[in-house]
Amino acid sequence: QVQLVESGGDLVQPGGSLRLSCAASGSRFNIDEMGWYRQAPGEQRELVAVVTSGGSTNVAESVKDRFTVSRDNAKKMVFLQMNSLKPEDTGVYFCKAVGSYSGIFSRYVYWGQGTQVTVSS
Fold first, then answer.
1. In DSSP terms, which residues pair with 97 in a beta bridge?
2. Burial class of residue 101, CB neighbours in 10 A (0-12, 13-18, 19+)
3. For the chain, what is the radius of gyration of the CA atoms?
4. Where are the beta strands (DSSP E) in 10-119?
């Protein structure tokens, strides 16, 4: 079993910055893709940004000029640097990891509990 623990959510004023972190436990889990989704009140969960173990990224159009996703493969961590935050960025940000276990030909998806980001003056 893999656990994902997010941190870094906070209340910030419009135009401010935050850095989210997510750490994955589980030494036998090989993570292919790791990243961030968010969910605003009354809305569906949506992709923010993900990064593969090789460094390829997929970033939502609405944030691509303001947010940067990165990861530390050795530490099994993923980060989201969020700049120029807007009120519409408010929501719960969830960490997601997709990967497999050695010798098992199945892919597994794990989610964190989420961290609240509120952008308001």
1. 34, 110
2. middle
3. 14
4. 11-12, 18-24, 29-39, 46-52, 57-59, 67-72, 77-82, 91-101, 108-111, 115-119
Q: Which two tokens stand for residue 6?
A: 């997010």
Amino acid found at 115: T
First CA to last CA distance, the chain? 40
Q: How many CB atoms lie within 10 A of CB 42?
A: 5
pLDDT digit string (tens) for the chain, length 121 residues:
899 999 999 999 999 999 999 999 977 889 999 999 999 999 999 999 999 999 999 999 999 999 999 999 999 999 999 999 999 999 999 999 999 988 888 999 999 999 999 999 9
* Tokens 């952008």, located at residue: 119
Give the residue among 99, 97, 101 at the shortest CA–CA distance from 28. Answer: 101
